[in-house]
């Protein structure tokens, strides 16, 4: 089992920055991809960014050039640096991880990000 705990959400003005962090614990050696999804009110949960253990990344088109995902395998953490934030980035952001060679997924409890115009 893997536990994920997010931190770093909050309220920021448009154009500002926030850094989200996610700490993992438990069976962390089994983790392959880690990343972030978000869900805005009335919308489906969507991928924001993923990073696999090798360091390869994948971003949603809407955040490319503004958000940067990074991972510290030694500390079992993943971070999301969010710059040039827009009101449409407002959502609950969820940390995500999956297990090697399985369809098992793990989710954090979510952290709220609000971008005011």
Shape: globular
Taking pLDDT < 50 over at least 5 consecutive residues as the criterion, the unreliable ranges are none
State the helix count. 0
Main pleated sheet:
7 strands, mixed
Task: Calculate the terminal CA-CA distance, rounded to whole Å.
Answer: 40 Å
- Which sequence of SSEs, written as H and E, runs from N to C? EEEEEEEEEEE
Portion of residues within helices: under 10%
How many whole angstroms does the radius of gyration measure? 14 Å
Q: Strand fraction band?
A: over 45%
Number-wise, the strands total 11
- Derived from helix and strand composition plus strand pairing, the structural class reads mainly beta
**Average predicted confidence as pLDDT:** 94
List keywords for this structure.
7-stranded mixed sheet; 11 strands; mainly beta; 117 residues; 4-stranded antiparallel sheet; 0% helix
How would you describe this structure to a colleague?
With 117 residues, this protein is mostly beta strands. It is built from no helices and 11 strands. Strands 2, 4, 5, 6, 9, 10 and 11 form a 7-stranded mixed sheet that branches. It has a 4-stranded antiparallel sheet with strand order 1-3-8-7, with no helix packed on it. It starts with a strand and ends with a strand.
């Amino acid at each position: 089992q893997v536990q994920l705990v997010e931190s770093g959400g909050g309220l920021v003005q448009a154009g500002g920055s926030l850094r989200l962090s996610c700490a993992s614990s438990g069976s962390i050696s089994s983790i392959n991809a880690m990343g972030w999804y978000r869900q805005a009110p009335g919308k489906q949960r969507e991928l924001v960014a993923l990073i696999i253990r090798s360091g390869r990344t994948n971003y949603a088109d809407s955040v490319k050039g503004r958000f940067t995902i990074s991972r510290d395998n030694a500390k079992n953490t993943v971070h999301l640096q969010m710059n040039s934030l827009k009101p449409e980035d407002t959502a609950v952001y969820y940390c995500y991880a999956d297990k090697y060679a399985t369809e098992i997924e793990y989710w954090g409890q979510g952290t709220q990000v609000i971008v005011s115009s």
